[in-house]
Amino acid sequence: MTALHPKSQANAASATPSGTGTGAFNQFVIDLFGVMAYGELSAFERLSSDARFSPTLQDRAALGRLAVTEFEHFEMVSAHLAGLGVDVEEAMRPFQASIDSFHERTRPADWYESLMKAYVIDAISGDFYTALAEHLDDATRELIARIQSTAEQGGLLQARLKAALSDDPRLASRLALWGRRLVGEALTQAQRVGIEREFLGGLLFEGNAAEQERGTAQLFAQLTRNHSRRMSSLGLTA
């Protein structure tokens, strides 16, 4: 993976919290941006493809707009990496196989499952990156805040899912089960990638391995609680 250019490395060191401006920390940050970039690019591709199966032209247009937003997020992260002297393709490559495999394992059976997948994954990703940003430098927090501020997915997807459930109550049990599978897969995926690349412990938690493991467990418990609240807002059991 491309290293930070000397000038960018100095800039990153000065922007990071005290004691974290090291080569290892810089690599953790690059990994975080790499997984974010490929996640946004994959979301763009997924929403663009799923839009074809929309039951109405209005739904197709809505998913198309969301896909455009995801690509804009990808471009934001790419520009930030470029500012650090890092090639976005190099930063994304370590995560390509893992994220592609996740999407293969969670291939929706129909348009409604596509909506639920977009809703669940977008929300969990947002929670995850926001939690990481609290421990990082100002530039990283600002980038994640900008992405979150332009993310309209949650409200639109929630409204469409509620309408679908209202029109066909039989969907509830199927989408509740699908939501449970998605959150399990998403949290397992996030934890696996974070641990393999070591950026969860490296970015979030100081101290020994036991403290890092405990902190990671607390983070994922909070992500699960947030998911449960979102499912309850749809009238579904998490």
**Quaternary structure state of the chains depicted:** single chain
- Unreliable stretches covering 5 or more consecutive residues: 1-20
Strand content: under 5%
Give the helix level as a range of percent: over 70%
Give the count of structural domains.
1
Give, in order, the helices and strands: HHHHHHHHHH
Put the structure in a nutshell.
With 238 residues, this protein is mostly helical. It contains 10 helices and no strands.
Structural features, described:
The chain has ten helices and no strands. By secondary structure, it is mainly α. The chain has a single domain (20-233), classed as Ferritin, CATH 1.20.1260. The chain starts with 5 loop residues before the first helix and ends in a 5-residue tail after the last helix.
